[in-house]
Amino acid sequence: MPNHILHKAATRGHANHGWLNSYQTFSFSSYYNPERIQFGALRVLNDDIVAGGKGFGIHPHENMEIISIPLEGALEHQDNLGNTQVTKAGEIQVMSTGSGVFHSEYNYNKDKDAKFLQIWLYPRELNVTPRYVQTVLNTAQQHNQLQQIISPDPEDAGSWIHQDAWFHLGTFDKDQSFDYTARKAGNGIYVFIISGSVNTNGQLLEQRDGLGITGAATINITSLEDNSQILLMDVPMEINL
Predict the structure, then answer these.
(1) What does the UniProt cofactor note say (predicted)?
(2) Which residues contact 72 (CB under 8 A, 6 or more apart)?
């Protein structure tokens, strides 16, 4: 039987620092819940709002795959690898922090908020060479279908990471229904609702709800309203580092 782990939006951790308003699905910083440490390789899923001109100063990371998905506005990235980039809605950025990287992320605009999803995954191997990649998405490929945005294969669609994980984005009209089959045996599927509402394997999910599913090779998702936007993450449940 499939196992469902439901994370309702209102039950997430929350920290409002003035310049940063952050909602955390899994334990992060001052938010600690022993029942919400991770979902397999998925360690962090933060829903962040950054005030105009503000952001995260230079700080280090290592041995983590970090994916940032802007939802509104734009982020300015700088790192010690020599990258200076602006990422906006319709694009994604990936950092393989590996043996160590220093970076900063600021709201590029001074007069409006930036909203983005900050996601961390444990890697498949430690101390890889750090890298930064920014990808422009063809969002037309997300209408009533899932667009692959992350995979383990550099030759595959979207960006690649050092983990056997696949991420997809899609925006669906009301009553659109589809099946999704995990790309690797033993992987779990985590469905996060960016907007709208869906029925996932019989479970109602509304805006910013998340549902982790294990023990099911294939799941079904039906959109319950127009413009239901879904982030689907297909991730290993075992971490062997």
Answers:
(1) Binds 1 Fe cation per subunit.
(2) 89, 113, 114, 115
- Given this model, what pLDDT does residue 35 score? 95
Instruction: Tell the burial category of 83 from Cβ atoms under 10 Å away from its Cβ (0-12, 13-18, 19+).
Output: middle
Classify residue 62: in a domain, yes or no: yes
* 119: CATH: 2.60.120.10
Q: Classify residue 70: in a domain, yes or no.
A: yes
Within a domain: 185? yes
Count of the separate structural domains present in the chain: 1
Token pair recorded at residue 65: 């795959």
Q: Does 59 show up as a binding residue in the annotation?
A: yes
% of residues, the chain, pLDDT over 90? 96
Q: Is 61 annotated as a binding residue?
A: yes
Determine if residue 7 is labeled as part of a ligand binding site.
no
Do the annotations mark residue 103 as ligand-binding?
A: yes
Nearest to 104 by CA among 77, 134, 130: 77
DSSP letter assigned to residue 141 = G
- Take residue 146 and report the two structure tokens written for it: 């899932």
Pairing of strands 159-160, 147-151: parallel
Contact present, 71 and 115 (Cβ < 8 Å): yes
* Structure confidence by residue, pLDDT tens digits, 34-56: 999 999 999 999 999 999 999 99
Model confidence at 96, pLDDT cuts 50, 70, 90, reads very high
Amino acid occupying residue 20 = L
Domain assignment present for 230: yes
